[in-house]
What we know:
- By secondary structure, the chain is mainly beta.
- It has one domain.
- The chain contains 1 helix and 4 strands, in the order ββββα.
- The protein has a 4-stranded antiparallel sheet with strand order 1-2-3-4, with no helix packed on it.
Amino acid sequence: MAISIPLCFANRHEPVRNDVKWDGLNYTGTCKNCGKTIRRQKHKVWKLDDSEAADK
């Protein structure tokens, strides 16, 4: 049995797979642990969407 530890506190997120969309530049989605908007940096590397933070 594998133990899953959310790593959102270290800016390592995991997307809700059926919620991922292509925005014309990157894949974006929602983190399944913290619910924040995330953007794929490279294969299997998801980080907080910094364009969302810049809008505030």
